[in-house]
């Protein structure tokens, strides 16, 4: 059962003038493989993350998502906890191989039933369900056929999107096609620190294009099967790129990383074309004219209603005088292989004088403000939503069983203030989803990194809201930030 003491549940705060707009949506997010567990129940088959985590040496301590936070069995308690904390929305992802075990053919109804039940429980609690179709867990059988570097995977994804829209479209009104396709393409097929663990620069770029195409095809499938009022979106982990200095070399390094880190997706998705500088930077690696087939760009640019933006830390880059790069400070895991095809020489730096999280990421809320303003200026008619923002710290219960995390509260306060400032400065930001609702399987780091606002004791699966969860509940109740501590 979920452990919530009555004295720790946030109370309704006195009415206050809200600095956030009317209708601003307050939520929290998770991902299927990170929280669900039940890895082989109800017909679910392995995804690439099952295979990767069970491969010795790929995940810290040999951890897997077999049980994770056991959300599959405990979702009712978890939804009750969300309600007590005052969440207005819950962003979850669907395990593709739980619904379509081979990535092809008809759905497994037993798999769909879990998501039907979860959505029904959320609606009963007055919490808006926000469904993400893909958060990195490709069915292993599709990877065995080539994975995202193969065009056919995009078509399979569109079929899966149609299945989900028909199953849940009467109850879920907000849909996200892909979460952070940059990670899927460049960490999965470039640096190899994410599943499926391949280190092939050409495959990474091919994967990026087919993920773009998958988004476009899935958007079309959603539109064909959802009510007209439903909203479609995609979530991108846009890098807030800064040159280390104003030298021409460092400015060019920033341009390069912006191209392969951001515009490889925003170009075709939002403008209908890949940026010319990206094509030039990477033409020695992949044959773009052969890769991009007729009709692809029009499909990829299918209109969306909201753009999800994930932000954790800025990306500071330079071009070393000797040409030797260091991709190990890019915040995306240690590897001898670069996730930046065509720009392997670029060096990455941590912000000086800033606090660090347990991930060794610099804490810099100004980066979120700058990112939201940049995207807003570039795409003024596209509403935005912060779909992930949060931090890992070394949390532990005290002698009374409480979990105090003042560093996370400071992090959230600073970043929510950055969102508030962006709204005041004209950015159309419609909501904020804290990452994450609860501690979970943190990919290659296993269970050693805790991003949750709710502490999970993995041995007992006992949930304990951290002080940040209670603080966030108070923010939601106020619809405003409290005075900074």
UniProtKB/TrEMBL annotation:
E.C. no: 3.2.1.21
Metal-binding as UniProt keyword: no
Substrates-to-products reaction catalysed: Hydrolysis of terminal, non-reducing beta-D-glucosyl residues with release of beta-D-glucose
Cytoplasm recorded as keyword: no
Annotated transmembrane regions: none
Entry-linked SUPFAM superfamilies: (Trans)glycosidases
Any one GO molecular-function label of the UniProt entry: beta-D-fucosidase activity
Compositionally biased region (Basic and acidic residues): 325-335
Stretches for region Disordered: 322-341
Sorted UniProt keywords: Carbohydrate metabolism, Cellulose degradation, Glycosidase, Hydrolase, Polysaccharide degradation
Origin superkingdom: Bacteria
Family the entry assigns: Belongs to the glycosyl hydrolase 1 family.
Protein name: Beta-glucosidase
Source lineage: Bacteria, Bacillati, Actinomycetota, Actinomycetes, Kitasatosporales
